[in-house]
Design goal:
The chain is of the alpha+beta class. It contains 11 helices and 21 strands. The strands form 4 sheets. The protein has a 7-stranded antiparallel sheet with strand order 7-1-6-3-8-10-9. The chain is elongated and about 95 Å long.
Length: 478
């Protein structure tokens, strides 16, 4: 429909979150996966409006609300404001005397920026008034923690900071690089009684989805402006991205190199480029001719962070040269790291922050006078015949410090710790033709402690596979 001024009239529902948080777990996903349903599902939206009608404004007539919900059952276009994702962890005692961990994941919004749903239809006056009353009576959207203020406003226009998510038909051609997801939506025509189904009843009936519902695809419409980092020429490009491991069974620290290798492979797969163009990236560290970048190690480092139980808890992508917009977007799109090799390694992650490495990597940066190996140091070159293991490793470590333009250490000591149990090769390169990954992994390595006369700043990663977290040092706090 076209309005009096020639402008198309639409129906738009705006949801603002005064507390700045939106909690909603996607259908079929476990809460401990740490996912947030964005865009929200049409099924969730319709059930919320139906519930508000039944519990808060029951005086609205069925003859008005039923046709209104039938119109709103059509999947709308969603406008999602700029946001970040976070979570809190809660520990509960279990029946065995231990503790169970539960994640509470949520999206963090600007309280003034609305999450909007828009339908192309123009509602008759009585239905529009009914929608406005339902919206004003909506106490929360998603979980009860997601307190919201809602209103119907057909005059609202999205800003350039909003992501546009449009429903797509199964017959549509979708580019391979497109960002897509699937959410639950009611089947058309709407069967109102299906909105009453409780998740517990659906599971008890052995169904994957409620009767009268189905999955519908949504595609994020690309835009020129960067979503994660405002286009401001005065701002420095971020140099680090940090991820949190989002699964109960966290990998042991000795397998860290497996997952840093997976992280690089997953990041490259998200870049919107063909394989030849994809090579010439800071994330890949190789030129278009598939040669290593000679940039004084200014391309990406994939570094592990461990918890006190010696598990892989976080991952940091550190790029000293700064991350271009398209490469930052590729990192932001990562949710799962999964191998295509002979073993089915996988890891669920969530990007928790991006910015400067000094902001995000305090446990890796220092400054400090003493630094100790977090992962074994392995030399890049072969030893001389006359070398002992200690002489060989210390000489190579000092050479690496010179290459990184670091000061001369006052002392270098080998630490007696188990380095043989650590993975010291990239699984993705293990079976490459002519590659010597396994042979390199059999070389002697060591844990090392460095001392300097003056405090030095990191991150400090040296030696063979240092861009994958091998030879990573951590500051020793006095």
């Amino acid at each position: 429909m076209v309005g009096e001024e020639g402008r198309r009239v639409t129906t738009t529902l705006l949801l603002r979150f005064p507390l700045g948080r939106y909690h909603a777990n996607p259908w079929g996903r476990h809460v401990n996966e740490g996912e947030v349903e964005l865009p929200p599902s049409p099924w969730r939206l319709l059930r919320a409006l139906y519930s508000v009608w039944q519990t808060r404004v029951p005086e609205l007539e069925r003859e008005v609300v039923h046709p209104l919900l039938a119109v709103l059952a059509r999947p709308p276009t969603f406008y999602v404001p700029m946001h970040s994702r976070s979570h809190t962890r809660h520990y509960y005692p279990d029946s065995r005397g231990g503790t169970d961990r539960t994640l509470d994941a949520f999206a963090v919004f600007d309280p003034c920026e609305p999450l909007a749903a828009r339908w192309p239809e123009d509602l008759p006056g009585v239905q529009h008034d009914a929608l406005q009353r339902l919206a004003k009576s909506l106490p929360y959207f998603g979980r009860a923690d997601s307190v919201c203020d809602a209103e119907a406003n057909g005059q609202w226009a999205p800003s350039e900071d909003h992501d546009t998510w449009c429903p797509v038909d199964v017959a549509e051609s979708i580019p391979t690089e497109a960002v897509v997801t699937s959410v639950l939506a009611p089947a058309l025509p709407l069967q109102l009684e299906t909105l009453l189904a409780r998740p517990v009843d659906v599971r008890r009936g052995g169904l994957l989805y409620p009767a009268g519902s189905h999955l519908v695809g949504y595609q994020c419409v690309p835009k020129q402006r960067r979503r994660l980092h405002a286009a401001n020429p005065q701002l420095q490009p971020p140099t680090a991205v940090r991820y949190t491991v989002m699964q109960a069974a966290m990998p042991p620290q000795t397998d860290a190199l497996i997952y840093t290798d997976l992280l690089r492979q997953a990041a490259l797969s998200k870049l919107n480029a063909n394989p030849e163009q994809r090579r010439k990236t800071l994330l890949g560290g190789r030129t278009a001719s598939d040669e290593k970048m000679q940039d004084e190690h200014r391309h990406a480092h994939y570094l592990p962070v461990f918890d006190e139980q010696r598990h892989l808890a976080e991952l940091v992508v550190w790029t000293p040269a700064g991350l271009p917009e398209e490469e930052l977007s590729a990192l932001a799109a990562l949710r799962e790291l999964r191998s295509s090799w002979e073993k089915d390694w996988r890891l669920h992650v969530r990007m928790s922050a991006f910015g400067s490495v000094e902001q995000l990597g305090q446990d890796l940066v220092g400054p400090a006078e003493r630094w100790r190996s977090a992962t074994p140091f392995a030399a890049s070159r072969y030893p001389k015949r006359s070398d002992t293991v200690a002489t060989y490793l210390i000489r190579e470590l000092r050479r690496e410090l010179v290459l990184r333009k670091m000061p001369e250490p006052s002392s270098v000591e080998l630490v007696d710790d188990d380095w043989r149990s650590w993975v010291r090769y990239r699984p993705s390169k293990r079976f490459s033709r002519g590659d010597t990954a396994q042979a390199r992994a059999d070389r002697a390595s060591a844990f090392i402690e460095l001392s300097f006369d003056e405090p030095v700043s990191g991150p400090l990663a040296l030696g063979h596979l240092s861009h994958f977290g091998l030879g990573l040092f951590r500051p020793v706090r006095v």
